[in-house]
Amino acid sequence: MLGSYVRITVDPVYDTDAQEQQKDGLRVICGKANENGGRNSAGIRAYIISPTALKGIVKLRVVAVISDNQGKRTGYVAAPDKVRVFEPDIRTLLKPYTDLESCSIVCLYEKSCGAIVFRRHSGNVEFLLIKNKKGGNWGFPKGHVEAGESEHDTAKREVLEETGLKIEPMDGFRELSEYYPHGKIFKQVVFFVAEMPDDGAISLQQSEIDRYIWADYGLAMKTFRFNNDRSVLTKAKNWLKNTK
Asked: Cα–Cα distance between 127 and 212 in angstroms, integer?
């Protein structure tokens, strides 16, 4: 159902006056979704995230599927086409309406944050690349945003978890990498730049990271599989060159 359109009947109690904005101009509107799109099918709980008040029957895109700890589907999150909402925000917005602590959420839009870590070595700038065990691809340390975290918080936590380095993102650089890794699922990654700490020692997360290398710009460009990584690295290199 993820990415599909469903008919949702808004709960009668959710009239225009009751639909107050909660976060970033968005509000939650509760209703029932007909899974097969028909008017007479059995309904499943639906939560609409919308910038405007809605009522009656609406047809919206499913942006997240909620399942219990047995994997049974328990609800949908739907939104207008132009609304992109990520898992941490979904959990925050839905907290007053349902208990999601033990639930899993599969989202149409995923957000991660990470850092391009560099060091100055023998007069050259080298970048830290890590190889993920699951995909086997080289990239930068990064990971999913968790509820309550800022983008900087996520980048610092993920770099620490994956490499053992305590970094501090530099001011002035924030670059987006956006792509579709699994067909219809949209992925947004926010990258910062951080220098290798003077007392830093790399300790890889054995469960997820296979190995690491320090690579200059030329080697890194040859090592990467995806153009998105090359583009982000090029922008980071040029930014560093112009940063005193």
From this structure: 10
What are the two backbone dihedrals, phi and then psi, of residue 111, each rounded to the nearest 5 degrees? -130, 130
Strands 142-144 and 109-121: antiparallel
Q: Sign of the CA dihedral 134, 135, 139, 141?
A: negative
Q: Residue with structure tokens 């970094």?
A: 167
Which domains does the chain possess?
5-107 (no CATH), 110-241 (3.90.79.10)
d(CA 58, CA 219) in angstroms, rounded, equals: 52
Q: Is 69 helix (H, G, I), strand (E, B) or coil?
A: coil
Could you write out the DSSP letters of every residue in 100-138?
-TT-EEEESEEEEEEEEEEEEETTEEEEEEEEETTT--E
Q: Output the tens digit of pLDDT for each of the chain's 244 residues.
A: 888 999 999 988 765 555 565 667 899 999 999 765 444 446 899 999 999 888 899 999 999 999 988 888 889 999 999 999 998 889 888 988 888 888 888 999 999 999 999 999 888 899 999 999 887 889 999 999 988 899 999 999 999 999 999 999 999 999 999 888 767 889 999 999 999 998 888 999 989 899 999 999 999 999 999 999 999 999 999 999 988 6
Please tell me the distance from the alpha carbon of residue 114 to that of residue 210, in angstroms, as a whole number.
18
